[in-house]
Amino acid sequence: MDEVISWFEKNNIDFVGSIPDCDLDGTYVGLDKMNGNKGTIFTRIASQLGMLFSPLGGEGGLFLVVGKKKP
């Protein structure tokens, strides 16, 4: 996730949210209500490790990162 976030910063894109959530607060309610919280390096790593040990981990982990081009 950190790599994608750095791509966003280099290309003038606002981070909107991700699945799984970067901040691990568990408040994900849908793409239309993502809060844009990037979390901390610790919570992003924990989120990625959690995905590896989930049923989707056999696929290498699946992430959806949403951004919006800055005006």
Describe the 3D structure.
Helix content is 30%, strand content 18%. With 71 residues, it is of the alpha+beta class. The chain has one domain. Strands 1-2 form a two-stranded antiparallel sheet. The two termini are 23 Å apart. The model has no long low-confidence stretch (mean pLDDT 77).
- Report the average pLDDT across residues: 77
N-to-C SSE series?
Answer: HEHE
Domain count: 1
Give the neighbour order of strands across the main sheet. 1-2
> How can the largest sheet be summarized?
2 strands, antiparallel
- How large is the count of helical segments? 2
End-to-end span in angstroms?
23 Å
Strand content: 15-25%
SS-derived structural category: alpha+beta
Segments where pLDDT lies below 50 for 5+ residues?
none
Question: What topology does this entry show?
Answer:
Elements lengths: L1 H9 L2 E7 L21 H12 L11 E6 L2
Antiparallel strand pairs: 1-2
Give me a quick take on this structure.
With 71 residues, this protein is α+β, with helices and mostly antiparallel strands.
Features:
18% strand, two-stranded antiparallel sheet, 71 residues, elongated, single chain, alpha+beta
